[in-house]
Structures are given as structure tokens and as C-alpha cells.
Amino acid sequence: MKFEELKAEIKAVAFEEVREDGEDYFEAVLVKKGLGSLSLLLNKFFGAPALPSQRPLPSQAQSVVADFGDIMAGQTLYFWHQGSDAVFAMLWPWGDKDHITLKMGQVTVPA
To answer: Domain limits at 44?
Structure first.
């Protein structure tokens, strides 16, 4: 999986605010009506979300999300890793029930 390709496609989504657009990290805010197109792109790249899921979260994913603010009930995590390469996307709904923060990045994890 190439993070650059994922980020290029994600940037086509209508975000209300882009907070950070770095080489290995992207963070933006969208309104709920844009969630459908974003979810399609994330499912295309990652497959089904790692959370919520019936399966336990892999230790590599636990380590990554802890470094980026953790993941809680009501939030969604997409996670992919191969060897020491990992890519994640976290969706954090706001209390106003209309906005969602996307945190997405590429990191190195212990193999």
C-alpha cells in the first residue's frame, strides 16, 4: 500500500478544514455528509475497519493509535501493516454529531 496514493485520493474529499498535510501524516475535518465518499475510499485501500470489529486489535495497531491519541468507542480505525510498514486512518466523530476528524498516517512499527 502506498500512503502517497491513498492521500492523493483522500484529498479529493470535500474537507471543511485541512489541519496538517505532511509527508507521512494527514489530518482534516469533514462534515458528516462527506463521510460516505471518504468511507468508500478507506474501504478500498484498507478493507474492513480494524475497529469496530469482532477481532482483537493487533498489538502493532495498539501501539500506533496510542501515539496518535488512542481510539475509543464510537470511533473508527483502519489499519494495514506489512513487515515494519504501517498505515492507519482514524475517524473521530465530534460531539456536535456533524463533524468528523480524520487522522491518517504512515509509520514504522516493530516487525
So the answer is: 3-108
